[in-house]
């Protein structure tokens, strides 16, 4: 049983005993005991620990964790203070500055967003060192579909930011018309110039939140 320390515990209480999750748990026990896996096992669920269901008003959906040493800590696109900014995060910061005029900090720890109600959720929550997508199709997609389907039931509007093909596949789970779905290419250097730059997702998110009487996100407050 995973303990998240907020309302997600009740919402996801039945998930941990489902056959797919028990298989995933067995797989992860072997992986963590035999090879280098990111993030640290105690950080896997940080996105849900930092941002409760009730507080979630925006969801950024990533692919899988960073696969380099010291990078992943359970929040998509985030790295702890002192770790160099990965290229995708550099591009995210550039778009925020171009879109909103906010001056971004030099560090890449996005816990300030999480505390403001931005759920920073990867579609897959673990990865082998140096092997992107190595834990794809092991069950995480079922788990994150469940998380998103629960958020879809929220009676207060939320914004879903879907960057790249893996994230955009989650769009089919988001059917509640009160929510806003924003899609564009992934912010990685391979695709950012194909539509991530200029997407203006950050100002669009805040305009939607304010229109619905919700506090906008201070994107520079990290």
Task: Describe the 3D structure.
It contains eight helices and six strands, in the order ααβαβααββαβαβα. Helix content is 32%, strand content 11%. Helix 7 links the parallel strand 5 (159-163) and strand 6. The model has no long low-confidence stretch (mean pLDDT 97). It is α/β, with parallel strands linked by helices and 222 residues long.
Name the features.
222 residues; alpha/beta; four-stranded parallel beta sheet; 8 helices; 6 strands; 32% helix; 11% strand
Question: What's the short version?
Answer:
The protein is α/β, with parallel strands linked by helices. It has helices at residues 8-11, 19-34, 46-50, 87-100, 111-115, 140-152, 165-168, 201-211; strands spanning 37-38, 58-62, 118-122, 127-128, 159-163, 180-184. It contains 8 helices and 6 strands.
Structural class, judged by helices and strands?
alpha/beta
Oligomer: single chain
**Beta-strand level of the residues, as a percent range?**
5-15%
How would a textbook summarize the main sheet?
4 strands, parallel
How large is the count of helical segments?
8
Mean pLDDT: 97
The largest beta-sheet arranges its strands as 3-2-5-6
**Low-pLDDT runs:** none
The gross shape turns out to be: globular
Question: What's the number of extended β-strand segments?
Answer: 6
Helix proportion: 25-40%
Rounded to the nearest angstrom, the distance between the terminal CA atoms is 31 Å
Topology as a string of helices (H) and strands (E): HHEHEHHEEHEHEH
